[in-house]
TrEMBL record:
<comment type="similarity">
    <text>Belongs to the group II decarboxylase family.</text>
</comment>
<dbReference type="InterPro" id="IPR015421">
    <property type="entry name" value="PyrdxlP-dep_Trfase_major"/>
</dbReference>
<keyword id="KW-0210">Decarboxylase</keyword>
<feature type="modified residue" description="N6-(pyridoxal phosphate)lysine">
    <location>
        <position position="320"/>
    </location>
</feature>
<dbReference type="InterPro" id="IPR015424">
    <property type="entry name" value="PyrdxlP-dep_Trfase"/>
</dbReference>
<dbReference type="InterPro" id="IPR015422">
    <property type="entry name" value="PyrdxlP-dep_Trfase_small"/>
</dbReference>
<keyword id="KW-0017">Alkaloid metabolism</keyword>
<comment type="function">
    <text>Catalyzes the decarboxylation of L-tyrosine to tyramine, which is converted to norbelladine, a precursor to all Amaryllidaceae alkaloids such as galanthamine, lycorine and haemanthamine, and including haemanthamine- and crinamine-type alkaloids, promising anticancer agents.</text>
</comment>
<dbReference type="GO" id="GO:0046189">
    <property type="term" value="P:phenol-containing compound biosynthetic process"/>
</dbReference>
<dbReference type="GO" id="GO:0019752">
    <property type="term" value="P:carboxylic acid metabolic process"/>
</dbReference>
<dbReference type="GO" id="GO:1901162">
    <property type="term" value="P:primary amino compound biosynthetic process"/>
</dbReference>
<dbReference type="GO" id="GO:0030170">
    <property type="term" value="F:pyridoxal phosphate binding"/>
</dbReference>
<dbReference type="GO" id="GO:0006520">
    <property type="term" value="P:amino acid metabolic process"/>
</dbReference>
<comment type="pathway">
    <text>Alkaloid biosynthesis.</text>
</comment>
<keyword id="KW-0663">Pyridoxal phosphate</keyword>
<dbReference type="GO" id="GO:0009820">
    <property type="term" value="P:alkaloid metabolic process"/>
</dbReference>
<dbReference type="GO" id="GO:0005737">
    <property type="term" value="C:cytoplasm"/>
</dbReference>
Amino acid sequence: MGSLNTDDILDGQFAGDCLQKPLDPDEFRRHGHMVVDFIADYYKDINKYPVRSQVEPGYLRKRLPEAAPNHPEPITDILRDVTNHIVPGITHWMSPNYYAYFPSSGSTAAFLGEMLSTGFNVVGFNWMSSPAATELESIVMDWLAKLLHLPSQFLFSGGGGGVLQGTTCEAILCTLSASRDQALTRLGRNHIGRLAVYGSDQTHCAVQKAAQIAGINPSNFRAVPTRREDAFALTGESLRLSVEKDIAAGLTPIFVCATVGTTSSTAVDRLLEIADVAKEYGMWLHVDAAYAGSACICPEFRHFIDGVEGADSFSFNAHKWFFNNLDCCCMWVKRPEALVAALSTNPEYLKNRATESRQVVDYKDWQIALSRRFRALKMWMVLRGYGVANLRNYLRAHVRMAKLFEGLLRLDCRFEIVVPRYFSTVCFRLLPPRCGERDVDEKRTNELNQQMLESMNAEGKVYMTHAVIGGVYVIRFAAGGTLTEERHVREAWAVVKEHAGKVMASG
């Protein structure tokens, strides 16, 4: 074959490959229907798959070619390979038998909203780049703030406002950066080594990571110890002791993260007490309700965020337990100007009359990245497609499932509920038989529960994860999957009993 030249291409010699349209409406319609059918069938059959992927590391490289194809391949072949090669390597977060970490509660409305967002493919970094993206987000965030009964200062009408971040990690980094810059404006930029950041030993590792990224000296991050008698909550007293010790050592406390529903045990920090300490020492208080914030739209759970009026910022993940798919973190601040001061840049190529009028929100200045997705569409569709009353009932149903599982555990003397259940997550463990009044051998008990958990997960019928709280290895049962029903909970209990019997019998 001779060498390729420009005339060959212009003459159409390779038109079948080089000139294929990447976005043809008719082809999109046909392929789109095929993919929707594929996903619908996946959900219909999801109960048949092992919940946790059973593949070994490196499995996929052995199955796929070493290089990308040179010519187009039909969508039917690609979807067949998804079934044969990709699906076996998926841990099925949407399975009704998924109880690990925290739920990933997608929904039809969120899925369709994501399709619209992807279809429009706007890059809504400022108002001018897509006015609807900015304005819908501002409206939806005010709707949510009102559902949560957040103080009026968190609404746009009250001088604050909300933004949809990707994850809690981003929300914490943004607010910590604002807190850092406020402190350095007061102290001087050369004093960054004096700044101290606080959480508890149950606080998500995102806070420590954010502190590192923001330039806080790693030795100035404080994981304040919690106690079992306080249900592993961060208390005002323990925070105050840590802060006063640091001040005496010449440090400047700037930021504290309080959690409503910690990752390990769903503990609830004492917001009212922590807010008092934060106010006294001029610290930015961020309330991380990534998991449990969703439940607080229900009046019976709203008290868990009492004290949020003393916070500077608040966030929860709608992709955890609010029927949105990943990613969708709702964050509010009382003083958006603090975020803008820390995160904004204004190059010539982004200048426009709307921004200069100061009558619009440019969300690029409320986040780490410049580009951003039209996330508000899926949140808007979830709120409209299900309605507040139904959303509350869905959440309550998940809590009832957790109560059911907790009750079944309590009826079996082999098990212990390790920490209080506040929401839809149960932390439990299997206890070995006792001889008289002999204390539990914690090391052996931890090993026993680790063995039981791995045995359950390897079987594939359910998937749960663990935590170590106060030295105790616990198994976490996190209800809240969109497809989970009471019958699945009872089936999960049967699996737990079966594997408890097996590990007991094995010694």
